[in-house]
Amino acid sequence: MELLFVYGTLTDQNHNEVASFLHKNGTVAGEGSFSGRLYNVGGYPGAVYHPETTETITGIIVRLNEPETVFEKLDEYEGVGGQFPAPNEYIRVQIPVQNHNGETHLCWVYLYNWPTENLQHIQSGRYD
């Protein structure tokens, strides 16, 4: 079973075609969070994993029905892979994510991969 944590535009299946695809090909397992900092990249968020921080990023955990198919579409959407200029704006990695019951699961997450010094820090850890 593959799990994916999403925290931004992929959470809103009603206003985003790719999010709608994700939710048709997965099951929401509930809310989750991980240690890190969230930034406003300009109309969408970028999360940076910082295991040592007390800040958390909140989103949802999705169980994927067909991970290969889903990741192919999401990698294109997030600009991940060799067909995009290096370094990619996002990278897809597995990190520990805590669910709403306090259990920790290894989840795939798209993390922001460019410098953040000129970006607005979203201190709430939630992209609305």
Structure description:
The protein has helices spanning 17-24, 67-78; strands spanning 2-6, 26-40, 45-49, 56-64, 90-99, 104-112, 120-122. It is built from two helices and seven strands. The chain has 128 residues and is of the alpha+beta class.
List the helices and strands and how they pair.
Blueprint: E1 2-6, H1 17-24, E2 26-40, E3 45-49, E4 56-64, H2 67-78, E5 90-99, E6 104-112, E7 120-122
Parallel strand pairs: 1-6
Antiparallel strand pairs: 1-4, 2-3, 2-4, 2-5, 2-7, 5-6
What does this entry show, briefly?
With 128 residues, the chain is of the alpha+beta class. The protein has helices at residues 17-24, 67-78, and strands at residues 2-6, 26-40, 45-49, 56-64, 90-99, 104-112, 120-122.
According to CATH, the fold-level topology is: Hypothetical upf0131 protein ytfp
Determine the structural class based on helices, strands and strand pairing. Answer: alpha+beta
- Number of helix segments? 2
Query: Total number of β-strand segments?
Result: 7
From the coordinates shown, what is the CATH architecture? Roll
Shape: globular
